[in-house]
């Protein structure tokens, strides 16, 4: 067998790259290395601004030139770091040497020893991960989720009055409207968005075991906790004052739990839309040139929602594993988190791909209101709930002596098909007040939707 050219192992980097590629700007090895360079550069600038060890503050042009290294970070820099790491066998040490080279190029050798000063690798890594995860969530994942919510909200408003048969336990049940059902998902997802938006991206910067030991020996008069807090917060992160060698990753567990929760709500949405398509409530709009089945030419398959289901399950599997793994570190440090965190992009990638499929899928369906009404017309027995509830109210009001309204309607409707005529005859013979009787006689399955239309406004 002939050997293939080098191929991506993950479909996220191959077949689906166009849908998830934006995450690579942040949650890739290159994105992580750029963030590491950013942290190293800012730490060096922060030290010279404070005049550590007699250094003078860099002038504006020198700071700009250093920060330009981060802004211009590209393929040549990626390749250079790879070459350095091949020698150092240590990714963060390679970044340190890379920054030192840039300092030399800029004529800043005098402050080169402040590169990575008093830092353990995790001081750089934890801040870099916090920056990249934050940016990926806020710039890529959340906007895509918000877009899906906006689509659901628009559909909810469009179909707010589209009465349909509910199917609790898969059986005909009290009618609702398609708009209200879609609004439920938009509301659920909106709550999770609000929670994700409140994520506290934590960072530590306190040395080998979180004690500032080397710092204090090198400069005992410096208020190192204050310096640490100010530096972490200057990166747009929240300072964690109590850690071991690593930042404890609790914020990551909290975030990934919320994203996984969103995945499961989206999975529920995908299975419900799939079911509505199966029932014929939604018609799929055929794409020109597309094939539904390799042998059955009539088929238009709900592949967007099926693809979403699979990717949401994969995403939650990865994120749940990360949330469970990252909160444990033996004593003051072990390296399980190092390997685990390299899969953060995988977890978010599968979720983003699912969101893309759901967004596309929602744009490829059309509600069949006529079928919804026909379905309701074949299930008049769902009005049994309304009738027995009104009878109960009439008994309490003293306008009826019926002893067991529920049993009466159960005998009439349970497991049976009851049409409009039978129900009208039944209601006409009830011992209830005339106003209540007229209300029931006017009721139909499409009008038995309560406040479903109004509830959409709760969005």
Automatic annotation (TrEMBL):
EC number: 4.3.2.2
Reactions listed under catalytic activity: (2S)-2-[5-amino-1-(5-phospho-beta-D-ribosyl)imidazole-4-carboxamido]succinate = 5-amino-1-(5-phospho-beta-D-ribosyl)imidazole-4-carboxamide + fumarate; N(6)-(1,2-dicarboxyethyl)-AMP = fumarate + AMP
Signal peptide start-end: none
BP GO terms, sorted: 'de novo' AMP biosynthetic process; 'de novo' IMP biosynthetic process
InterPro entries attached to this UniProt entry: Fumarase/histidase_N, Fumarate_lyase_CS, Fumarate_lyase_fam, Fumarate_lyase_N, L-Aspartase-like, Pur_lyase, PurB_bact, PurB_C
Pathway(s) annotated for this protein in UniProt: Purine metabolism; IMP biosynthesis via de novo pathway; 5-amino-1-(5-phospho-D-ribosyl)imidazole-4-carboxamide from 5-amino-1-(5-phospho-D-ribosyl)imidazole-4-carboxylate: step 2/2; Purine metabolism; AMP biosynthesis via de novo pathway; AMP from IMP: step 2/2
Keyword Lyase (UniProt): yes
Molecular function terms from GO: N6-(1,2-dicarboxyethyl)AMP AMP-lyase (fumarate-forming) activity
Enzyme class: lyase
Residue ranges annotated for the Adenylosuccinate lyase PurB C-terminal domain, each copy included: 329-449
Domain Fumarate lyase N-terminal: 60-308
Pfam families membership: ASL_C, Lyase_1
Entry function: Catalyzes two reactions in de novo purine nucleotide biosynthesis. Catalyzes the breakdown of 5-aminoimidazole- (N-succinylocarboxamide) ribotide (SAICAR or 2-[5-amino-1-(5-phospho-beta-D-ribosyl)imidazole-4-carboxamido]succinate) to 5-aminoimidazole-4-carboxamide ribotide (AICAR or 5-amino-1-(5-phospho-beta-D-ribosyl)imidazole-4-carboxamide) and fumarate, and of adenylosuccinate (ADS or N(6)-(1,2-dicarboxyethyl)-AMP) to adenosine monophosphate (AMP) and fumarate.
Family according to the record: Belongs to the lyase 1 family. Adenylosuccinate lyase subfamily.
Protein name per Swiss-Prot or TrEMBL: Adenylosuccinate lyase
